Fold:
Amino acid sequence: MTRPLVLMHGLWDTPRLFRRLIQAIDRPQQPLMAPHLPHGLGVVPLRELARRLDRAIDERFGSNTEIDLFGFSMGGVIGRIWLQELGGARRTKRFFSVGSPQWGTLTALPIPRLLLAGAADMKPGSDLLRDLNADISALEGVACLSYFCRWDLMVCPGWKAVLPVGPAEELPVWTHQQLIAHPRAVTRLAAVLRSA
Structure:
């Protein structure tokens, strides 16, 4: 059986975001899950969203089924929390981080933590990102791939939207949203997702 694929959306997005990508993957036999994790426009802390992701994966696939994990934007950070802090790495074969602020983004700097804890988690040097980057040993058994857009204004600077392990690839698009919507990006991501 084809390994299940879990797709995590980002801030201000819903699972509808993945419609084009799922069509391009074109593997009807592959179990897919794209949970909707409401984030209250950035109010909900990312660790809480990772706990919700953990429950959703367990409810759908049980606690032992090996999966691939794909996170777009903030969804890539939520996925990484699940991998590193909630034991997800032990059952994950591949992790795709697409336009995710794994080292933070300058656009989050003015966001007050008291009002928007989840969005503030994405500040460069936030407690969360420091914790994740201090010990990356959990990722050693996972094939990690990062995709970014050099001119990304949401995850800024764009070339910092990469994991501390695994190869990184710049996609030939101009904006953050194009990383998941532009035909060139969708074609490339679908090809990689189909490759195993």
